[in-house]
Specification:
- The complex is a heterodimer.
- Chain A is mainly beta.
- Chain A contains no helices and eleven strands.
- Helix content of chain A is about 0%, strand content about 55%.
- In chain A, the strands form two sheets. In chain A, strands 2, 4, 5, 6, 9, 10 and 11 form a seven-stranded mixed β-sheet that branches.
- Chain B is built from no helices and eleven strands.
- Classes of the chains: A mainly beta, B mainly beta.
- The interface between A and B is medium-sized, with 26 and 23 residues.
Chain lengths: ~110, ~110
C-alpha cells in the first residue's frame, strides 16, 4: 500500500513565522504535489515536483516555496506566514505510469 | 486556463442511484478523474477516463464524453458510507502530471 505521511495533523503559527510542512512517501514516486483545500474552493495546486530538485509552480504559488532534496520527501515552506494562509494543506504523490494521486492525511494550519 | 463545474450538493436515499455531473473547460485534455473525500479524511482515487464511454468499478461507474467536455460519476445501491465529497479533476494543458480539481460535490445519503 502506498503511504503518504505529513509531519503534523494540526499546526498553529503566528503571523510572520517561517513554517515548514513536510511530506514523505514510501513508493518511490517521481511526482509529488502540494495543495491547499478551502471550503467551496476545492483543491488548489500550490507547487509540484517531478524529480529531485525539480519544481514547478501550480496555480497559487505566491507566498510559498518548496524543497525536494530527496525523492521521498517534499517540503512546503511559508517564508512569512499570514492569516490568509490558514487552510488545510494536502500532499500527494504519483508514479510515472499511472494517473492516480495518493494523498496524505493533511495538515490543518492556523495562522494567528 | 482550466475550469470545472460540478454541483455543490446532492442528496439521495440509501439504495438509490445518484449521478454527479462534471463539465470542464481545458486547453488540451488527457483524462478525467474522480476522487472521494470523507469528512476529515484524505481524497482517495475512484476512477479515471481517458476515452469516451463508461468505466465500471463495482457500484461506481464513470462516464466521459470528450466532444461535450462532460463526464459523470454514477453511484449505485447507495450506502450511508457513500456520504462524502466527490471531486472531478482533469489532466489538461500540456499533459504532464498536473491535475486541476473541481470544487467538489457533497453527497448526503439519507435513510
Amino acid at each position: 500500500d502506498v503511504k503518504v505521511t505529513q509531519s503534523s495533523r494540526y499546526l498553529v503559527k503566528r503571523t510572520g513565522e517561517k513554517v515548514f510542512l513536510e511530506c514523505v512517501q514510501d513508493m518511490d514516486h517521481e511526482n509529488m504535489f502540494w495543495y491547499r483545500q478551502d471550503p467551496g474552493l476545492g483543491l488548489r495546486l500550490i507547487y509540484f515536483s517531478y524529480d529531485v530538485k525539480m519544481k514547478e509552480k501550480g496555480d497559487i504559488p505566491e507566498g510559498y516555496s518548496v524543497s525536494r532534496e530527496k525523492k521521498e520527501r517534499f517540503s512546503l515552506i511559508l517564508e512569512s506566514a499570514s492569516t490568509n494562509q490558514t487552510s488545510m494543506y494536502l500532499c500527494a504523490s504519483k508514479g510515472g505510469s499511472t494517473d492516480t494521486q495518493y494523498f496524505g492525511p493533511g495538515t490543518r494550519l492556523t495562522v494567528l | 486556463g482550466q475550469s470545472l463545474e460540478q454541483p455543490s450538493e446532492v442528496t439521495a436515499v440509501e439504495g438509490a442511484i445518484v449521478q454527479i455531473n462534471c463539465t470542464y473547460q481545458t486547453s488540451g485534455f488527457y483524462g478525467l478523474s474522480w476522487y472521494q473525500q470523507h469528512d476529515g479524511g484524505a481524497p482517495t482515487f475512484l476512477s479515471y477516463n481517458a476515452l469516451d464511454g463508461l468505466e465500471e468499478t463495482g457500484r461506481f461507474s464513470s462516464f466521459l464524453s470528450r466532444s461535450d467536455s462532460y463526464g459523470y460519476l454514477l453511484l449505485q445501491e447507495l450506502q450511508m458510507k457513500d456520504s462524502a465529497s466527490y471531486f472531478c479533476a482533469v489532466r489538461g494543458q500540456g499533459g504532464g502530471n498536473k491535475l486541476t480539481f473541481g470544487t467538489g460535490t457533497q453527497l448526503k445519503v439519507e435513510l
